[in-house]
Amino acid sequence: MKSQHSYQDSEKQAIYKVIKERRDMRHFSPQPLEEGLLLKLLTVANQAPSVGLMQPWRFIRVTSQQLRSDIQQLVASERTATADLLDERKSEFLKLKVEGIAECAELIVVALPDGREKHVFGRRTMPDMDLASVSCAIQNMWLAARAEGIGLGWVSLFEPVQLANLLNMPADSRPIAILCIGHVEKFYEKPMLIEQKWGEAAPIETFLFENSWPEKV
Question: What are the backbone angles phi and psi of residue 146, rounded to the nearest 5°?
Fold first, then answer.
């Protein structure tokens, strides 16, 4: 029986559609975002669930072109270091476009704040729930951006200490994401890594267990 709290069918279809069509974007056009849209996306991020209502997300908007260039250099260095660990897939990896830092309209660094140790509600045994909370905030932005027809790409190829130093962050804080946000010529039909034949996504049955972890066969 349908829940009395269920949304209308058209509303539910829109939610499922935006989830299915969300993409980790790497290709952007230089057109600026419309006035107020970035704040709208950040407001949606701030509405994400968070452990103990600690709201452990901090957003640094990068408007300096020199800083944007420095961040891109950090990513390039980590890209090379990652490629060196990929052995036979190194050349294949180096052909992939892994960021749109120079082209995107807005660049946002998302970080965990300092002073997190004082928040113990829900974190005494699982302190990394703060990271889970920030990930929910980023996903909120991602889905809202896709609904608005705006691309968002999460870049994780960087050395955290070096990026923190660039941004004058407190010692106990931690950058976790570089977000490239902006208009795109088109959205990928499939996730880019599938289109580029880097890998294939597995179905949910692969990850669904019942009552216990399955024995290895």
Answer: -65, -40
